[in-house]
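Extended Data, panel c. Modelled sequence:
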Amino acid sequence: MQTNFFSLIDQMNITGFLKLVIAKTGDGKMVLTVLLNNDQCTDKAQQLIKPMNLTAEVSELDAHFFESITKPMQHTASLLDSMQQYMAGLEAAKAKSSMEKDKQVKESKVLSAKEKKYKELLDQSLKLEADSKYREAWTKMPDPIEYPQYAEAIRERKQALSAKFPPDLFASVPEPVVVQPAKATEHLNDPDTEPIDDPEPEELEYNEYSGLESDDVPF
């Protein structure tokens, strides 16, 4: 005998396991219990869905069985599918939340280690400054590029330390420029300068008293 029972079930287009329990009653009727489950759905709330019970004559079941269960089973399948998608999204959100939390913890540890390093360097610089080792204290200061939140404070402290540096005894001192006075003979080496005639010695007039000493000159 040919039947289209399974073809009609296939046409319902539902996802899951359709469970059908059939029992006969004493008055010639049949009791049918229909339940749809979806093993892909991890939401335990699907256990709250009660099975669908039908009691009718055999002829009535032949005429109206699929008409009676198709829409309820389709709604159930849609509900279970939505629950499954919700649970999948919930698991993804949980995993992402854990990843974000782990990321925040790692970032917090990195920042904590960086802050610890900053404090260590600053303490070393302060100790060297207390010992009047200003250059060493300057070099121990943290790099402002690595600590942008403290960049201004770092620059101000390094500037204050550099102002306390002792003078450098080995720094090159420019030699003073000595200007030599011009000599009278320099014009001899200058071809553009006219020579200056030396005055001739004044001739002394000779008289009869020139050979006498001052005491012998008669007045």
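The beta strands are 17-24, 30-37, 52-56. This feature is highlighted in the accompanying rendering.
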